[in-house]
Amino acid sequence: PTHVVSNMLILVGTAVAIVVMSYLGQSFAIIPEARKLIIAGPYALVRHPLYFVEAFIMFGAALEFQQPWSLLIFITVQIL
């Protein structure tokens, strides 16, 4: 059951990340001048939806491995 839950978290998180990226469109850029403020879709609900979804994906990966180091990596990334 843990394997199924972890895979679902990873798959659903990845699908949601793709949807979030589609809302960014041309605003997905490294150069700040190329970006513009997006306030529609998931960005109307959460300030940084990609970070939010990344947490789901990383938690799914931590469940997949079921090792203390994977939980430690997950917690460290969430704190930083």
Shape: elongated
Strand content: under 5%
Average of pLDDT:
91
Counting helices, strands and paired strands, the structural category is mainly alpha
Report low-confidence residues grouped into runs of 5 or more.
Answer: none
Question: What value does the Rg take, in angstroms?
Answer: 15 Å
N-to-C span? 30 Å
| Secondary structure tally, helices | 3
Major sheet characteristics:
none
Order of helices and strands: HHH
**Which percent bin holds the helix content?**
55-70%
Number of strands: 0
Short structural summary:
The protein has 80 residues and is mostly helical. It has helices at residues 2-24, 49-65, 68-79.
List keywords for this structure.
80 residues, mainly alpha, elongated
Task: Describe this protein's structure.
With 80 residues, the chain is mainly alpha-helical. The protein is 65% helix and 0% strand. The protein is built from three helices and no strands. Helix 1 (2-24) runs antiparallel to helix 2 and helix 2 (49-65) packs antiparallel against helix 3 (68-79). It is elongated, with a radius of gyration of 15 Å. The termini are far apart. The model has no long low-confidence stretch (mean pLDDT 91).
Question: Layout of SSEs?
Answer:
Elements: H1 2-24, H2 49-65, H3 68-79
Helix pairs in contact: 1-2, 2-3
